[in-house]
Amino acid sequence: MQAVYLYIRVSTDEQAVKGYSQRSQLDRLVHYCKEHNLIVAKTIFEDYSAKTFNRPEWNKLFAELKLTKNQSSLILFTYWDRFSRNIMDAYKMLERLQNMKVSIQAIEQQIDFSIPESKIMLAMYWATSEVENDKRSRNVRLGMQKARLRRKMDQ
Fold it and tell me: Which residue, of 70, 121, 129, 139, has the greatest Cβ tally within 10 A?
């Protein structure tokens, strides 16, 4: 039997702005599992950025999956940006997971990995998330620079 893991991740700003609350993600994932007769082995809640895979709960899950290597597992999340916001890291992690017989899937943006062309869509999802993150970082930096200049001018 396949072990199914629900991975629920938020960042504080995303939760407020986009409604990616943990409760919302959990409800959608549980509903999906019921519809597809999947039995959840574990639910992982993460409150950490997806810029890298150096996330506390992800590291625990990955360590657990390593111990059960060669046992078919599935990690579900709502959208691909819940998995990663770094396209290079995402592809590396996907390869590592596939080598361990672990599948991943975003229930709201499903990818059929048996169709080679589907990987184009996956690249778009990950690239879009990374670009969005980069733009947000740039805007924060520019805002901070502007605030510093204003303070200097006010002195």
Answer: 129
The maximal CA–CA distance of the chain, rounded, in angstroms, is 68
Nearest to 6 by CA among 151, 24, 100: 24
Identify each DSSP E strand in the chain by its residue range.
Answer: 3-10, 40-47, 73-77, 102-106
Report the SS3 class of residue 10: strand
Count of C-beta atoms within a 10 Å radius of residue 5: 20
Q: How far apart are CA 145 and CA 132, in angstroms?
A: 20
Q: How many residues does the chain have?
A: 155
**Tokens 């590396």 belong to residue:** 92
CA dist 98 and 70 (Å) reads 10
Answering whether pTM is above 0.90, one says: no
pLDDT digits (tens, 9 = 90+) for 86-105: 999 999 999 999 999 999 99
C-alpha R_g of the chain: 18
Q: Are 25 and 8 in contact (CB under 8 A)?
A: yes
